[in-house]
Design brief:
- α3 packs parallel to α4, α6 packs parallel to α7 and α7 packs parallel to α8.
- β1, α1 and β2 form a beta-alpha-beta unit.
- The longest helix has 13 residues.
- This protein has 294 residues and is an alpha/beta fold.
- The strands form two sheets. The chain has a seven-stranded mixed β-sheet, with helices on both faces. A seven-stranded mixed β-sheet has the order 9-8-11-10-12-13-14, sandwiched between helices.
Length: 294
């Protein structure tokens, strides 16, 4: 078992023929992902050779789904075209759209997220501005390095790409069921709460690691959800304990106003829900080990 992505997932890549799309499609294929097609209206009918694997290019997401049975799309489209690419994926009713692109205007994300809701939420959106997700040993949809961990029984959900990688590496000897990078923009699709719910229901996840960061109230809301709905142990980390107040730090969503959105406030909310919170990624990994050791 895993959440959202398994070895049966059939993946297409919107923007596969671009430089980033090609680079990461090659890496996804190398890690065992079943990449069944790319989408580029100008190159429909051609194929791209990835070290002997010929991947066909389709004109639209709908055509790709009809030809291959694809159920996941990974979006490597420049930010000014991302909204239309995601809307196309939603119209085609693909079950999962992983939006890697960063720098998307917030109103564009708001529009395609509202559009997905209006269409009945048939397409789960992960991102934007995210590293994607990986079920180690099964499938990798995005830009997460596949060789830094192994399959295991920890579920990881994180706002930060690089902290996703660090936590995967720190706990590589134990391994992960699925690692989900949800992105750090002010508006995202899949949230901490969505991932927590899925991990709670996944029989092969024994422990959940949740990484947040300063700004907004997503972690506080996640704490309330954990208190009410999660029976599995959760270990957390909040990036930004040393960040100065009133400054925009890193991700577009990481804005602190007074005590609202600070790392300390988030830590206290999570601890009140029974979550053990580390002050550094390494301390968080140590806490995870202690919990698993019983």
């Amino acid at each position: 078992m895993a959440i959202f992505l398994t070895k049966e997932s059939k993946v297409i890549v919107q923007g596969m023929t671009g430089s980033e799309g090609q680079k990461h499609t090659r890496r996804m294929l190398a890690s065992g992902t079943n990449v069944v097609g790319g989408v580029n209206p100008r190159k429909a009918g051609t194929t791209v050779d990835f070290e002997g694997t010929e991947v066909p290019v389709f004109g639209t997401v709908k055509e790709a789904i009809e030809a291959t049975g694809a159920d996941v799309t990974v979006v490597f489209v420049p930010e000014k075209f991302t909204k239309s690419a995601v809307v196309e994926a939603i119209d085609a009713e693909i079950p999962l759209a992983v939006v890697i692109t960063e720098g998307i205007a917030v109103h564009d994300t708001a529009e395609f997220w509202a559009y997905a809701c209006a269409k009945g939420n048939k397409t789960r959106i992960i991102g934007p501005n995210c590293p994607g997700l990986i079920t180690p040993g099964q499938s990798n949809a995005g830009i997460i390095p596949a060789d830094i961990t192994k399959p295991g029984r920890i579920g990881l959900v994180s706002k930060s790409g690089t902290l996703t990688y660090q936590m995967m590496y720190e706990l590589r000897d134990i391994g992960f069921s699925t690692c989900v990078g949800i992105g750090g923009d002010p508006i995202i699709g899949t949230t901490h709460i969505d991932a927590l719910k899925a991990f709670e229901e996944d029989p092969d996840t024994d422990l959940i690691v949740m990484i947040g960061e300063i700004g907004g109230d997503a972690e506080e809301r996640a704490a309330e959800f954990i208190k009410a709905n999660v029976t599995k142990p959760v270990v957390g980390y909040v990036a930004g304990f040393t960040a100065p107040e009133g400054k925009t730090m890193g991700h577009a969503g990481a804005i602190v106003s007074g005590s609202s959105g600070t790392a300390q406030a988030k830590k206290e909310a999570l601890e009140a829900a029974g979550v053990k919170v580390g002050k550094t990624p390494s301390e968080t990994a140590r806490l995870a080990r202690e919990v698993l050791a019983g």
